[in-house]
Every structure is written in C-alpha cells, then in structure tokens.
C-alpha cells in the first residue's frame, strides 16, 4: 500500500476547509433561528423606527349655556437646526424684533457647533402665537426674494435658514380668573410632565384627557407618512352660569375690599337639583398665568375655600338646630321661653351675644334676636341622641362628595367621643365648637328650601363624547326633615327678616334667611375680636329657586354678619332675580303651595 506524504500545505487546506464549513453552517443556523428573527425585528424598530406617543386633544369645558371656560389653541415651538444655519445674526435680529427676545442670547445659541447626537436642535422659544409665526414667514420669504445684486460684497445674504417652528396645542382659559376656583388648571408649560390641578380639571382628568396612541415613526424622513390622530378627550358642560358667576365674584370682591376682610366666599345653588350656579372665592387665579399660584396662595390658603376651608359657622347654624326641634315636635313657632340672659349646661354658663336678658320670647323671637341661651335650651329639649342624629342626617361632619378636587371636612364630635362633653350640646346649638365647609353647610340648608329633600351638590351638567351628550341626573342624598317642618321654618325666618327690617331683604321678593357671627378661636380660646361673618338665605319663599351663602372672614369694618354679610346677600339676590327672570311676588304673608 502506497502512502501519500502529509505535507504542511495539506494540513492548512484542511483547516481552512473546516473553518469554512463551520462558518457556513453557523450562518445557516442563524438565519433559521427564532432568536435571530426576534433580534432582527428589534433592530429594525430601534434603528429604522422610533416610538412616538400621540396625545389626544384635551376636552373642552363650557358653562351651562355653552360659553367656553377651558379650551385649546394652536401655538408654536421655535427652534434652530444647527446643521442648517447660514446666518446666525439674521436669526437673532429677527427674533429680537418679532418676539422681543434677547439678541445676544439667541446669537450665542445659534452659533453653537453642530454635533450629531449631541448638539443638533435647540429650542429658542415656545408657546408662540400664530400671528407671530405669520410675521416670521413674511420676513423669511422677503429674504428669499432679495436679488443677489443687492448683496454687498463681503456681506452674507440675510437668511433664516435653520430656524424652524412646529405647532402644538396649549390649554387656554378665555375667561381668565372667572370661575377659576371651579375650573382649576392644566400645567401646560411642562410639555412632558404637565398635569391638572384643582377643580374640574383635576377631578375629571380621566375624561378630559382621553387615551394616548403609541406609533412607530420611520427615522428616514422619506418614509414618514401622516401620523394618526388620537380621538380627543370628552368635553364637559358645567352647571355654572358664567354671568351669575362673574356677577357674584364682583360682589364678593367688593365686599372683601369694603369691609377689610381676609377673604370672601359666596355660593349660589339650585335647591331642587343641587346644581351650583356660582361659587366665588377670594383670592382667585388667572388660569392663563397659573405659575403665579404661589404669589397669591400660601400653604394655608385653599385654592377653593368653598370646598377646601372649614370654619365655625356661628348663628347661621341655629337654622339646623331649630329645624331639628320643629321636626321632633319639641317646639312650635309659638313655644314660649323666658330668656334670663344665661343658662348652664355641662358645668359652663352660656350667655347671649350681647350679654343681655331678652325676657319672654317665642321660638320666632329666639331666631329673630339670635339668642344663644334660647337655642341652648332648645337643644336640651331635643336631647343628645336626636340632636346629633339630625346633624349627621344633614351631612354635618361628612363630605358632600361634590365633583370638585380638594374637598375637606371636619369630623363632628358626638356623645361617646373622647373630645365631646355635655357642654358641647349647648355650644353646638348656636354654631360654636362645630366646623363646616361652605359647600357642606349650603347643602344642608338647601334641604330646608327644598321641602326637606337634600340633593347632591354638583358642577357637572353633561358630558359630550364622540358627538353624543350624556346628561347628569340630580341625586337625592337625604330627607332630614319633613315638608311641613321645612315650610314652617322657612316662614319663621322670612317673618324674622321682615320684622327686624334686615339688610338682607330684597325689594318685591320674599326671602328667608339667618345671619351668623362666629368668634374665631385662638390658642387661648375665644379671646380676640376677629369673627367669621355670614348669611344664608333662600327664596322666593313661595317656591325657592336659589339658596345663597355668604361668608366674610375676619372683617375689620364690623364683626357682625347682620352688618357686613346681609347686604352682600341682598345685592347678589337682586341681580339674581333679574337675570333669572324670576317674577316679583311682593311681600306675601305665609307660603303658598308650590
């Protein structure tokens, strides 16, 4: 047998052949591998496409008559593509002229070196109005039309090359601060993390914001097609009446100024439906300049005092005490009481607001003269169990769950609680030692104006989504007193105002109501002269169409609700009956059937 010599050349050839076969085999294996297919798909997405999120247009907010309270307008972001800039001086000069930007700052930005992946595009301005963009387009076009013959030797042609602008939407509030505490705002200046704050904007964000869409966009501009649009968010129609809201704000602003008060709050509600027609508070914010929030509001100042501030209401609370006494049958309007000027309960003595004894009275007289001693006696007749059960039925100590962000509540202390003692029955009867929010209190009082039926307060009237309108249905949340009790108490409080010739009276319209003056407790008890002055009233008494609550915090002109709050109620109602076209009823005696 003959052997062929095994040369070095043969060995190298075999090695190369083996490597070649291995490479081909590996390539075949890779091409048919599921892992390879996945990697390839991912690579295409990473290098050939980029992910973009398409945000829908935020839904609009209207008042009950379709007046726009919150919407969107097209504005522009202006930037510079550093790779395309040919004349930085032109760009800086034009932006100084049109947008009043600093020439030096713009020139510094536009002269930066282009570095791919590092320094390519710089934002120069944002939220630029369309009319300013139109002016920039005019200037750009005029530069293109300059003949070369007009360009002096050694000078560069004026050019806006590299200057770009692209549109986007900005949240806008056409009424500025009108209803601002109700609407809230969307922080539109933060293009990435912007979110809603306060009011309807925050409460109904999930409805207004709609749903985003994620798409793959080719990195190759020649392959880019028109991007899809996300369906817009739903729009809201509120119960608020822009004209009533604006008028109430003007009245409460003037009252705060004239009386040297720290703040003012006024609410107008329809007792039959629970619809809020107006809710005015101070201070208020121009929603188009929401970033000035901290200039007007500190940490202790709620954005909307009507839902976010609690206070001791004082004598307006006597309305609920008397409603309870009448409904339980403990008293009638003519029940006699001898006022001696003092009464003892739980080991403490209670006095009237003027420290005087008013002698023989009826329950009508007790309410008319706002006698703390009498109302304490009334609460003692009611007893602990019924008194606090009725207060809870009126919603005291509970949230109303109004559809606005930021509602707070103060718990109601009841017998058995650690911080309750027998004297509370007396002080609570005239609104001391108990705390309410304006929305909580007006909701309770609305039950008296609505034949004993308490409606859920709300600001949403309807939702418009995909061209369909879905209306809100008013909700009954309680029936704390009977129809007979409600009408009896309404008549008592109407007569009370008429007999004392109250500042709250409205010419040609019969209204019912009660003043409130509450001392403000400090670290050492009720030792200061500062008060919460308030008034709550409703009318016309024959068929109430509105309930109005007014609260002035710490007025300096006078501490008394009868002096500072009653006239505010009267002015609001005089405007209200005219605007709502409620016919006058003169000065009726008693209450007619509704």
Protein model, in words:
This protein is an alpha+beta fold and 594 residues long. The protein folds into 2 domains: 56-112 and 121-211 and 221-238, Penicillin-binding protein 2a (Domain 2) (Alpha-Beta Complex), CATH 3.90.1310; 242-286 and 305-533 and 543-579, Beta-lactamase, CATH 3.40.710. Helix content is 35%, strand content 21%. The chain contains 20 helices and 22 strands. The strands form 7 sheets. Strands 2, 3, 4, 5, 9, 17 and 18 form a 7-stranded mixed sheet that branches. A 5-stranded antiparallel sheet has the order 11-10-22-21-20, sandwiched between helices. Strands 1-8 form a two-stranded antiparallel sheet. Strand 13 and strand 14 (348-351) form a beta hairpin. Helix 9 (242-259) packs antiparallel against helix 20 and helix 12 crosses helix 18 (483-499). The chain is elongated, with a radius of gyration of 36 Å. The relative contact order is 0.11.
Summarize the structure.
With 594 residues, the protein is of the alpha+beta class. It has 2 domains: 56-112 and 121-211 and 221-238, Penicillin-binding protein 2a (Domain 2); 242-286 and 305-533 and 543-579, Beta-lactamase, CATH 3.40.710. The termini are far apart.
């Amino acid at each position: 047998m003959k052997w062929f010599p095994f040369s070095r050349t043969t060995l190298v050839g075999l090695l190369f052949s083996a490597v070649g076969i291995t490479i081909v085999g590996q390539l075949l294996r890779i091409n048919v591998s599921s892992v390879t297919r996945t990697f390839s798909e991912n690579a295409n997405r990473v290098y050939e496409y980029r992910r973009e999120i398409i945000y829908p247009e935020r839904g609009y907010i209207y008042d009950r008559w379709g007046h726009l309270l919150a919407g969107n307008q097209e504005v522009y972001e202006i930037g510079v593509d550093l790779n395309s800039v040919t004349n930085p001086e032109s760009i800086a000069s034009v932006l100084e002229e049109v947008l009043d930007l600093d020439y030096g700052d713009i020139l510094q930005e536009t002269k930066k070196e282009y570095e791919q992946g590092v320094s390519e595009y710089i934002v120069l301005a944002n939220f630029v109005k369309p009319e300013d963009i139109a002016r920039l387009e005019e200037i750009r076009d005029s530069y293109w039309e300059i003949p070369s013959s007009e360009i002096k030797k050694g000078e560069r042609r004026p050019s806006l090359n590299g200057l770009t602008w692209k549109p986007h939407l900005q949240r806008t509030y056409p009424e500025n601060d009108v209803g601002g505490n109700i609407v809230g705002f969307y922080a539109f200046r933060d293009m990435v993390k912007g979110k809603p704050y306060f009011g309807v904007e925050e409460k109904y964000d999930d409805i207004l914001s709609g749903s985003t869409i994620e798409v793959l966009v080719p990195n190759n501009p020649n392959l880019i097609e028109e991007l899809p649009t996300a369906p817009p968010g739903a729009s809201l129609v509120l119960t608020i009446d822009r004209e009533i809201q604006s008028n109430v704000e003007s009245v409460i602003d003037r009252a705060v100024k004239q009386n040297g008060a720290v703040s003012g709050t006024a609410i107008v509600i329809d007792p039959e439906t629970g619809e809020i027609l107006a809710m005015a508070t101070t201070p208020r914010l121009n929603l188009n300049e929401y970033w000035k929030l901290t200039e007007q509001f500190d940490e202790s100042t709620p954005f909307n005092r009507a839902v976010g501030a609690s206070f001791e209401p004082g004598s307006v609370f006597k309305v609920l005490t008397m409603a309870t006494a009448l409904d339980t049958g403990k008293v009638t309007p003519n029940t006699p009481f001898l006022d001696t000027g003092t009464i003892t309960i739980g080991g403490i003595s209670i006095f009237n607001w003027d420290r005087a004894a008013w002698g023989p009275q009826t329950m009508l007289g007790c309410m008319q003269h706002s006698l703390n001693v009498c109302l304490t006696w009334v609460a003692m007749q009611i007893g602990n169990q019924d008194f606090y059960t009725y207060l809870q039925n009126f919603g005291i100590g509970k949230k109303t769950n109004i559809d606005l962000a930021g509602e707070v509540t103060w718990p109601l202390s009841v017998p058995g609680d650690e911080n309750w003692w027998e004297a509370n029955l007396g002080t609570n009867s005239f609104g001391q030692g108990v705390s309410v929010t304006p929305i909580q209190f007006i909701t309770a009082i609305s039950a008296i104006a609505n034949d004993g039926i308490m409606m859920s307060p709300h600001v949403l009237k309807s939702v418009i989504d995909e061209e369909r309108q879905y209306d809100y249905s008013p909700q009954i949340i309680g029936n704390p007193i009977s129809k007979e009790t409600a009408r009896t108490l309404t008549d008592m409080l109407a007569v009370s105002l008429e007999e004392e010739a109250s500042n709250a009276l409205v010419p040609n319209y019969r209204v019912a109501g009660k003043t409130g003056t509450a001392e403000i407790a400090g670290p050492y008890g009720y030792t200061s002269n500062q008060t919460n002055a308030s008034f709550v009233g409703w009318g016309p008494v024959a068929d109430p169409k509105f309930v109005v609550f007014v609260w002035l915090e710490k007025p300096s002109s006078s501490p008394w609700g009868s002096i500072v709050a009653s006239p505010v109620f009267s002015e609001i109602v005089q405007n209200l009956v005219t605007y709502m076209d409620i016919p006058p009823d003169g000065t009726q005696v008693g209450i007619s059937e509704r």
